[in-house]
Amino acid sequence: MLKRIVVLFAAISLVTGSLSAMSYQGVLLNSAETIDPGNFKLAIAPAMILGKNGGDSVWGVAGKGGLGLARRFDLEISGALFRDLKYFGVDLEYWFFKGPSVNMSASAGWHMTDFKTGPNSSGIDATLIVSTRPVRKLEITGALKFSFDSFKNTDQNITLIHAVPGIEYKITHRLDALAEFGIALNNDSRHYLCLGLSYYFL
Length: 202
Description:
By secondary structure, the protein is mainly β. It has one domain: Porin (Beta Barrel), CATH 2.40.160. The chain is 10% helix and 61% strand. It has 1 helix and 10 strands. A 10-stranded antiparallel β-barrel has the order 1-2-3-4-5-6-7-8-9-10. The N and C termini lie far apart (69 Å). The model is unreliable at 1-21 (pLDDT under 50).
């Protein structure tokens, strides 16, 4: 009887660990300032999901395309490709506070993740973003990101929570350099790092 209980708990731990190890939350790749109406932004960034509990770090690439829909309101589509997963998401962002030195926005959306070695997942996202410009070309951002995921054909649900500090530096009128570090705030999440570029077409 004791042996069966030990085996059962080991199996549960293995399944939970594998699902948790595969967790992924889309990267931010933007500040609190939304895209100007009618403008289009394309961002691409090599990214690394850091290893956890002895697991390996995983390299991949993340991207985001955005369209300014109205004053302080935009639509963004994001994607990512890593060794064992593909990610697709869409969200709407609203720039609700514009101050002399601080800006704040909020976004909400939906995503799906295709895992090569486990059940696929989908869920909803919510993000609060704060940014400031200490100098004209440099923007410092901070975000709190939530992702609520359900795995297909299982009873497994996870919540991913990240604090995301980052910077955005204007190289030219249309081209920005981006860097961010996603800090995992709960056991389901994993730290990540990405560096990239964003280009505004207008």
